[in-house]
Amino acid sequence: MHDDHDEISNESGNKLFSDIVNARATRRGFVVGSLGAAALTFVGASQAQANPNKGPNNNSGKGKGADKGLIGFTSIPLNGGPYPTIAPEYALAAILPWREKIDGSGESYPYNLTSEQQEKAIGLGHDGMWLFNDEVLCLNLEYGTNYHMFGRNDVRSLEEVRTVQAAHGVAVVALQRTGDTFKMKRDRRNRRIHVNTPVEFSGPAAGSDLLVTKIDNHNPKGTVNNCSMGHTPWGTYLTCEENFDQYFGSKDKSWTASDEQKRMSISGPNEGAGYGWFDYDDRFDLAKNENEDNRFGWVVEIDPQNPNAKPIKRTALGRFKHEGATVVEGIAKRIVVYSGDDERNEYIYKFVSAQNWRAMMARGKHPLDEGTLYVAEFKADGTGVWNELSPKNPKLADKTMDWILVNTRAAADIAGATKMDRPEWITVGQNQEVFCTLTNNTNPVGHPDRPANLANNADGHIVRWKDSRSHVGTSFEWDFFAIAKEVHDKDGQMFGSPDGIWADMKGRVFVETDGTQPGKNNDQLLVADQKTAEFKRLMTGVRGGEVTGITTADNQRVMLANIQHPGNGDPAVTDFPSAMLKDGQTVPRDATLVIVRKDKGIIGS
Ligand code: FEO
Ligand code: CA
Ligand code: CA
């Protein structure tokens, strides 16, 4: 989701990350302007600096394809054009455009398709995704506005609302390799999960009255605004519900939002970001259907192998604007899930399963249903603590567990969390280092004495930390990996607004952007050396579009990444991906890019 929906709902007195950063820089005797040099002392890292001649030869990739060094490709210039560009050693193909039928026929429904057709086709808003066993892809379809769908900003019927609802959600499709690209195949596992698909709740809040509604009673439906993701060691996909608030509101102008709703950015009857769903679908009218909003903002588990398995909303992971849900095995095989809440001044969370996940499953327990949820508090001395979100925390002793899980932001306010600069994706790289993109924060509230360059963090940064006890402890050490405005190549600043991030286990960190880039150029895909923080630009995206989602196949000899909202839906800006698919369509469509090295080498090398 691009960043024009970044309101502030956090009115707590909790500390801002920028204040902590400033205090930290001051304590060390550095002025804020040299923060990049000051901060990069974590586990022996050196300053972020592009060095095109460097490429440590520690790539462990074996087999076909030459080893070109860790990030040995030719870094390309920024680009503002209507089509993607890629490093000269690489090639690109496009697959899975909006409206492609999920029956594997290779055909697409026409523009102006019906809701019934959209329920059987790839939707809009390609975002987080994961390819299981080089075969079954789960693809988030985060959002598609009325303009993308109809070429105008309003909806005019329930059928139109249903069509937009069907474009949201997740696609599960089986792929088969054809040369340097993939195509969707006919497969029993292919399915669409959308806003009207039956789902279920699990975990500590599952039976809560807060999740019962008038219209569907105990039978919840749907997932929406599916942003980033996670994947589990037991082979399931986790899709994350981010800006769900923008689909809710009321036709009733006298309806007012509760404090809990305001804390989730639902402020009044005119909410809805122009989707207009509650004008035709009472389910999204909060005056008529109380609690429906409480059913969104969760992490949802999907079984990619079983098309009949209902998506399950895992309440133990809390409810907020989940960007992603990054899973790592902690000490003693406990499952740890890191998750950012992407809104200005929101928090970073961690869930730790109660026990070894295999042992839990052997006893019929689900590791994402029993465990402890924490929220991060960053300290100026480079340490941090995870504050428990449960009635066991004395500050939350008067709250019930279901209230804490449904109103997780409010609980985290009380527990004492650090307000971050819009946490987006999280990844775990070599040496168990955790990386989180803080995309930007152009308007943190309060604190007028903050230095100007931190008060307006328009470019974002990438923070990293090392958790205690292999991710299951309650403390961590943190520092910066990169501060966007200080990462330069010979042409100047390389990127702004980092969003997608994925580290391979060979020392490369892939970074995708969503926001204003230097020179107002297109969003991009960069690759950094985890040790040196040297960056190179691998790919640039499409004018008006965002680069989202990362997954790989064939032992990282293929990478998939998405172009979301190319041209912002405007045919005058681009017809992407028609030039690549040669299908003559004029309206731009979200699609997935297949990236290969021409010499079949490791992606990123
Ligand atoms: Fe859906 Fe925060 O990006
Ligand atoms: Ca994002
Ligand atoms: Ca973003």
Secondary-structure map:
Blueprint: H1 17-27, H2 35-39, E1 85-86, E2 90-95, H3 115-118, E3 126-132, E4 136-141, H4 146-150, H5 158-167, E5 169-178, E6 181-184, E7 191-193, E8 200-202, E9 226-231, E10 237-241, H6 259-263, H7 277-280, E11 299-302, E12 312-314, E13 326-329, E14 334-340, E15 344-346, E16 348-356, H8 357-362, E17 371-378, E18 383-388, H9 401-406, H10 408-415, E19 420-421, E20 423-428, E21 433-438, H11 452-455, E22 461-467, E23 475-483, E24 488-489, E25 492-493, E26 498-503, E27 508-513, E28 524-529, E29 535-540, E30 546-553, E31 558-564, H12 578-581, E32 591-597
Parallel strand pairs: 8-12
Antiparallel strand pairs: 1-29, 2-32, 3-4, 4-5, 5-6, 5-7, 9-10, 10-11, 11-12, 13-14, 14-16, 15-19, 16-17, 17-18, 18-23, 20-21, 21-22, 22-23, 24-25, 26-27, 27-28, 28-29, 30-31, 31-32
The structure holds MU-OXO-diiron and calcium ion (CA) (2 copies).
One calcium ion (CA) is lined by residues 227, 323, 424, 499, 514.
Structure explained in plain terms:
Pfam families: PhoX (PF05787). InterPro entries: PhoX, TAT_signal. The longest helix is centred in the first third of the chain and has 11 residues, at 17-27. The protein has 605 residues and is α+β, with helices and mostly antiparallel strands. The chain has a nine-stranded antiparallel beta sheet with strand order 13-14-16-17-18-23-22-21-20. The chain has one domain (17-242, 297-597): TolB, C-terminal domain (Neuraminidase), CATH 2.120.10. The structure holds MU-OXO-diiron and calcium ion (CA) (2 copies). MU-OXO-diiron binds next to loops.
